[in-house]
Design brief:
mainly beta, three-stranded mixed beta sheet, 2 helices
Length: 133
């Protein structure tokens, strides 16, 4: 909670109207399906309603995505849609069957992550590296 408050204050102190968030996705299975990047700006909408998203064909082992968004706090979710059904497939106990990752490279143990686990401050030009698992 303290981390979230400090990041909010930091965003407020150096606030600019627009920011660029560059997402670098690593450990992609090249030439298999698509990479989906989703950006969230609230706890209530996290993993439900992204404020921005982009999908690209998985063309190499590392890919970059760029978003022009208002400065602020965001969480990022990424997955590789191997079979093209436009969703993250999950198996028993909702464990993902397809590669996935979150900002802060947060690795949930037995449940989906919380917004606060993945939140990053986006100010000016910010880069987040996400390694798919």
């Amino acid at each position: 909670m303290v981390k979230l408050i400090l990041m909010t204050l930091l965003c407020w102190l150096v606030r600019t109207d627009q920011a660029t968030l560059k997402i670098v996705v690593r450990h992609i299975q090249a030439d298999k399906g698509s990479i989906v990047v989703e950006i969230y700006n609230s706890e209530t909408g996290f993993l439900k309603k992204p404020v921005a998203s982009e999908t690209q064909k998985a063309s190499s082992g590392t890919m970059e995505f760029s978003f022009n968004i208002p400065a602020g706090l965001y969480a990022v979710a990424v997955y590789q849609d191997l079979n093209g059904n436009k969703k993250l497939d999950a198996g028993l106990f909702h464990i993902p069957k397809e590669p996935f990752g979150f900002s802060n490279n947060y690795r949930p143990s037995f449940s989906a992550p919380d917004y606060k686990d993945c939140v990053i401050a986006v100010i000016g030009q910010t880069t987040s590296i996400i390694v798919l698992k």
